[in-house]
Write a structure and sequence with these properties.
This protein is mainly α. It has one domain. It contains 14 helices and 2 strands, in the order H-H-H-H-H-H-H-H-H-E-E-H-H-H-H-H. A two-stranded antiparallel sheet has the order 1-2. A hairpin with a 2-residue loop joins strand 1 and strand 2. The longest helix has 31 residues. The protein starts with a helix and ends in an 8-residue tail after the last helix.
């Protein structure tokens, strides 16, 4: 049962990574036609929220008391893990190269490993450390070297986005709130949409739209088709599948599995937009996958295998 549940968790995590990763290729024609990133993100989250409101209420049996009891958790999830990540990332890429912002944002799994190390004062197993190094190296190769200016504010904003991603995984694992994954995703998207709407109204984020036909999957489609696609698949489905995967696999493995998003993004961009995958990106994808496999091999803390893995990392005392 545990094995089959683990397979389900990995499948959901990969599906979520694919859905998230495909979002960029789907939205890119809108951005090229004159849409501002803020406007695209707002409508993306709005569509996701509208699609999940009713299923979320059904999952709660129309009882909002669990949401109220976990109101601070829901609020943090919505403002930091949903709206905060999007705002911080798009504000960062206005100041620093996109590749650098992505690299910083996707350091979240390593940050979670470091946080656990600090909190428990126990070094991670060697297999996790090796997996972290491989995954980060692969991430660098997939995203590519960054050029241009290194604005300190942009780097800080990208760091805030990384924190938001880490919060997404930490809160997603919590089952003690009594909130089903689909209800947590729905409430996060609704509140996140309101927060983004306020940011757009006050001018914190530029808002520009162009209601024109755009290229879509080798054809031409109305502007709302890619928006509906990214809202339904890359937002509503991706968040629900991602939260369910986190609850099955745990924060650490799910966060490393989330790195598959950058691999899927490159593959989808190649298939849909014709953006070729370089040999270095292919090697980076292998590195990320190898890192995920190593993290998956982590043994329970109290098992003999775990003690054997950790023994060389624990300093001896005289």
């Amino acid at each position: 049962m545990r094995a089959s549940r683990g397979v389900l968790g990995v499948a959901l995590g990969l599906a979520s990574g694919l859905a998230f990763g495909a979002g960029g290729a789907v939205v890119k024609p809108l951005l090229e036609s004159g849409w501002s990133p803020g406007a695209a993100v707002f409508f993306r989250i709005l569509i996701g929220a509208l699609l999940l409101v009713v299923p979320g209420l059904i999952a709660l049996r129309f009882d909002l008391r669990p949401l109220w009891r976990a109101k601070w958790t829901v609020l943090v999830y919505a403002l930091i893990a949903v709206a905060g990540v999007q705002l911080a990332f798009y504000m960062s890429i206005a100041r620093i190269p996109v590749s650098l912002a992505l690299l910083i944002e996707y350091l979240a799994p390593v940050a979670l490993v470091a946080l656990a190390w600090i909190r428990t004062r126990k070094s991670p197993q060697r297999v996790v450390l090796f997996g972290s190094v491989l995954a980060v190296a692969g991430l660098v190769l997939v995203i590519g070297p960054a050029g241009g200016s290194f604005d300190p504010v942009g780097i800080v904003l990208a760091g805030i986005a990384m924190i938001g991603v880490a919060v997404y995984y930490v809160i997603g694992e919590r089952e003690d709130t009594g909130i089903p994954p689909i209800a947590l995703a729905a409430s996060g998207l609704v509140i996140g949409c309101l927060a983004l709407g306020i940011a757009l109204l006050v001018g914190l984020v530029p808002f520009e739209v162009r209601f024109v036909d755009v290229p879509y999957l080798g054809m031409t489609a109305p502007w709302w088709v890619p928006l509906l696609t990214v809202g339904a698949i890359s937002t509503a489905f991706a968040y629900v599948a991602g939260i369910q995967a986190i609850r099955i696999l745990g924060t650490r493995l799910a966060s490393f599995l989330g790195l598959s998003e950058v691999v899927f993004a490159a593959i989808v961009a190649w298939l849909v937009l014709g953006e070729a995958i370089t040999p270095m990106q292919g090697l980076g994808g292998v590195g990320i996958l190898a890192g995920i496999v190593l993290v998956r091999l982590e043994r329970p803390a109290n098992s003999p295998e775990a003690r054997a893995l950790d023994i060389d990392l624990v300093p001896t005392r005289s």
